[in-house]
Amino acid sequence: MQTLLAKLLTFWLKPTFINHRPLDLNLGSDISADQVRYVLDCDSFADRVLITLGCRLGGLPTPVTIHSDPIAFWCLHHREGFFGRRSPRSSHNLSLMNNLTTDPAKAPLLIPVSIYWGHQPDRKLSAWKALLSDQWGPSSRFRKLLCILLTRSHILVQFGPILAQHQVLDGNVLNKRRAHRLLRAHFKRQRQSIIGPDLSHRRTLIDELLTADSVQVAIDTAAELQELPRHQAAASAYRYAQEIASDQSYRVVRFFNILLTWLWNKLYDGIEVSHLERVRAASEHAEIIYVPCHRSHIDYLLLSYVLYNNGLALPHIAAGINLDLPIVGPLLRRAGAFFMRRSFRDNLLYKAVFDEYLHLLLSRGYSVEYFVEGGRSRNGSMRSPRAGMINMTLKAFYRDHTRDVQFVPVYFSYDRVLEISTYQKELKGHDKQTESLFDLVRVTQLFKLVFGQVNVNFGEPLSLQTYLANQIEGPYHEVATDTHRAICEDLGLNIVKRINATLAVTPIQLFAIIIAQTPEGKISKVDAVEKLRSLQRLAEADYTSCQFQQSDADLIDYVCAASGVSVTSITTGDLIHADQHCRANLKYYEQSVLHLLALPSLIANHLMTLDAARGVDSLERLASTIEPLISILDDSLLYRSDKSPERLAHQVTALRETQLEMTPILDIGSSESSSFVNFIAAIIWPILCQIKLTTDLVEAKLSLENIGQALDTAFIEWPSDLFLPTATQDSPQNKTVSLGLDKETLDRMVQSLTKSNPEQGVNAQLRRIQDAVNELLPLPLQASLNPLSRNLIKKHIPTMATTH
Question: Where are the domains of the chain?
Fold first, then answer.
């Protein structure tokens, strides 16, 4: 009878399995059944059937029986009663004599298996939803029966991580209580990382928020300052809490899962997820704050979709109040969004309510997601961090730091950003359009376009506990205001640099680099794919898209389709042409990957200088040449380059080897060919020109506003015998390059330039940077830059008096 029932369940149930392959658990393919024991929290026939099915599908050793055999399975508790009553532990609940041994050679590997029936909890705990959603209480036979009948696809089975026998032993002693305690704690951590913390009703959360001491003090202060009755100030606090708080509902999450699965299939060729194991490891011993880059409104939905489909608890997402639209806002709120106003510095009551809400989320173990950049990047580069959410996170951690908080950087690499056309209009000076319901209708008009693939990469987590241990010596509540402000700024920079380091490199990004240096946007397919492969070898990213695993022909065809370029057949082969509009769009993706190629490009310029002078190379000379510039580039591009001798030596070797492998690359439109090193060197030339001009203008004591105005009017004639960066849209012959900088990048660059070395002073540092740029830039560029710099200074010095 049990065998027949097991076959019926195997046929009917549609569970999701995680880590059910030997490779996922770092096991060899030859592992045998007698070398492993599967550990269950509670004894259950249905659970044992699911384990057997997962083992069979993933290639793990299949348990010898589906019966309650202590040699095959190891259960901490006896299965629950029909309606959820907890029964006494079974007599063989640990079966230590059958499962553990003091002989290390015979010790089995313990594989805990966590099974979640309806694996996300619902916030509004009606009786019906409580039956079908996995909660922190026991899983009764009755609820499992309902899940089997009604929600057969909402079952999650997670294997591992593996526990070696010594992890549950007390030294070499078979200590039953210790083993039981450690395994019980393991299942508790797994459950929290999958379904989130034990949840309370939203109304209860708001009531607790409003009775907090900090909010009560803010209510009293607001009533006094605004000369209002206290109950009116309290009512305002209640309205703020209602406006802010999320109302996560599993029914809405399921709805979004179905909707987004359809949408992704319409828009994208696939979603590639990498390094999710970093999140799983961090969530076992810390609260998680996801800090993604912000490229599109899709970001909000994409991260939750990825986490949900990989069996991780959904975060509560900080969203701008501009997204709290009719219909859309309530749906987002029930999907986990909590809303915040763009600015509330002057509204102390709102600030107190928001601070307390964030503190409650973190102290109760909820995962949180927010964008430290504030808004979406319009040009593809990383934006400067906003201190607001970081400031509130730190203050919440000061109050309650019993459990660590880890920032998990996330990078979304889109082959085509949904709002790219809107961004181009805004960069041309058009006003930002307010979000509306009509935006949803416009999305359907984009289905005919090719959007390629999306890469979601999870970076190395940053432990807040470890970070603060290196910043603060005394108790957290004694941190001075200035110290706290400095920590906010430094932590924000650390986070955005980690996000940038998490970039998943895609073919579109590297293709954008190539087009940026191609006169008139034309290049043969053969040359394009050759350069793509060479850049792939040099851009040592945290992750590289699997699209690069295609053949050369398939790769370049994919790039052409996703980037929107046209392809024409000529006598010498296929010619790629990126028109003016396409080149402007590709600039976005070029900016997103520049920081990874800055160091290789500086090294290439150094090698070119040596070749021209027939000099002898050395790592010491290389390091001394690029050192003044790499720190400026890192500050400007928000990155942390590895300047170690080993890294420099590796890059030099990679450049030389790739140069030998490549055939001469013909510059379309030019009778001369340029070497591969020249091609790599040209990547950084526009930024070096910007650094040179900015340094000259700072030395001339122009204000930041004057410097920005000067650079906006700065154009340079690019010598025709050099690779051409992308020309401005105002110069159809591609002879002119704009040297303008966006305000945030300029601000970071000027701050970096004026950070004086105590031993040198600002002026000495500026001259050192000027010398480094002159040493690396080709002479024709220097010849164009020097008179341009003098003219800009002469033109803008008379206006300085009016801007102070």
Answer: 2-195, 202-499, 593-804
CA dist., res. 324 & res. 383, Å (int): 24
459: its two tokens: 């970076």
Under a CB-based contact definition with an 8 Å cutoff, are residues 273 and 228 in contact?
A: no
Find out whether 478 and 294 touch, Cβ atoms under 8 Å: no
Q: What is the pLDDT of residues 395-445, one digit of tens each?
A: 999 999 888 999 999 999 999 999 898 899 888 887 777 666 556 566 666
Residue 507, Cα to own-chain centre: how many angstroms?
18
Helices 213-225 and 230-244 pack at an angle, to 10 degrees, of: 130
DSSP state of 322: G
Taken in order 758, 760, 764, 770, is the CA torsion positive or negative?
negative
Q: What is the pLDDT of residues 104-118, one digit of tens each?
A: 666 778 888 988 887
Neighbours of 493 (CB within 10 A): 17
Q: Which residues are paired to 124 by β-bridges?
A: none
- In DSSP terms, 453 is beta-bridged to 270
772, two tokens: 């480094």
What strands, in cross-sheet order, belong to the sheet with 522-524?
522-524, 573-577, 566-570
Q: Please count the residues of the chain.
A: 804
Closest CA to 44 of 65, 60, 68: 68
Which position has the token pair 């979004």? 256
**C-alpha closest to that of 583 among 515, 533, 498, 661:** 515
Q: CA triplet 618, 624, 627: central angle to 5 degrees?
A: 130
Please give the angle made by the CA atoms of 235, 240 and 246, to the nearest 5 degrees. Answer: 130
> 142-148, long-range: CB within 8 Å, 24+ apart, which pairs?
142/82, 142/83, 142/84, 143/84, 143/117, 144/44, 144/46, 144/117, 147/117, 147/118, 148/9, 148/12, 148/13, 148/46
Indicate the DSSP class of residue 572.
Answer: T
Asked whether the beta carbons of 112 and 47 are under 8 A apart, the reply is no
SS3 339: strand
570 bridge partner residues: 573
Q: Which helix (H) or strand (E) holds 110?
A: strand 109-117
Q: Which helix (H) or strand (E) holds 173?
A: none
pLDDT at 660: 64
Choose among 668, 623, 660, 613: nearest CA to 643.
623
- Regions in the chain scoring below 70 on pLDDT: 64-74, 77-106, 119-140, 165-178, 192-193, 195-201, 434-445, 611-617, 660-675, 719-735, 756-760, 798-804
Question: How far, rounded to the nearest angstrom, does the alpha carbon of residue 16 sit from its chain's CA centroid?
Answer: 24
Residue-level pLDDT at 172: 55
656: three-class secondary structure by DSSP: helix
Q: Please report the pLDDT score of residue 237 as a whole number.
A: 96
- The residue written with tokens 């290389």 in the block is 622
- Residue 761 zone, left/alpha/beta (φ > 0; ψ -120 to 50; rest): left
Contacts 24+ apart (CB under 8 A), 319-323: 320/375, 321/243, 322/434, 322/435, 323/297, 323/435
CATH number given to 202-499: 3.40.1130.10
b/e per residue 288-308 (b: at least 16 CB within 10 A): bbbbbbbbbbbbbbbbbbbbb
Positive or negative torsion for Cα 638, 640, 643, 647: negative
Contact (CB, 8 A) for 603 and 626: yes
- What b-and-e string marks burial along 581-609, b requiring 16 or more CB atoms within 10 Å of the CB? ebbbbbbbbbbbbbbbbbbbbbbbbbbbb
